[in-house]
Amino acid sequence: MSQEKVYEQAGFGASVPRGSRPAILVVDFSYGFTDTRYPTAAEMGAEIAATRRLTDFARSAGMPVLYTTIAYTPLEARSLPWLKKATGMAALEVGSRLVEIDERCGAGEEDALVVKHGASAFFGTNLAAILTGAGVDTLVVTGATTSGCVRASVVDAVQSGFNTLVPADCCADRAQAPHEASLYDMHQKYADVTDSTDILEWLRSVPAR
């Protein structure tokens, strides 16, 4: 039996409903992930450009755009168990360039910036409260890395009550295999994995806020 058939028979892979109040979440397109002078980063220019097409339109239509960054104080860097496993993340220090959103994203003053300390954009942050307060019913998740913070944020988005969409060409990772495996897994269990062209066409069909 094929892999696709196994998932289909198990009841996975159904389509996600698309609501009328979307928001765009851009996960960790900060210099620590996007500027290859840093060992924690990878080349993500194409994914940033694809994401910006979505955020520029969403912003013009009055749809919320939110960015996340990971930033640690020295105490957090010394204490948090994740950083004992992923030691490179300790370089993401509060106040450093590594935690600034890459200027190619075009983030605006009206956009939300959520500072997180773990993989998920929801864990230990006020992201769910912001989205709920804004009346968001469908969350488009983009950013880095696909197999890490994007996937964790997608799982928590669904668990927080948001229909979730993932444009694959807006997600970047350090290696292709975990990128592809994570997209497949998210599409089967948590989100509709699509592309930026499809998402932009849908956003244009949604009445401006």
TrEMBL record:
The keyword Magnesium does not apply. Keywords: Hydrolase. It comes from the Bacteria. Residues 23-197 form the Isochorismatase-like domain. GO terms for molecular function: hydrolase activity. The keyword Hydrolase applies. This is Isochorismatase family protein. It comes from Fulvimarina endophytica.
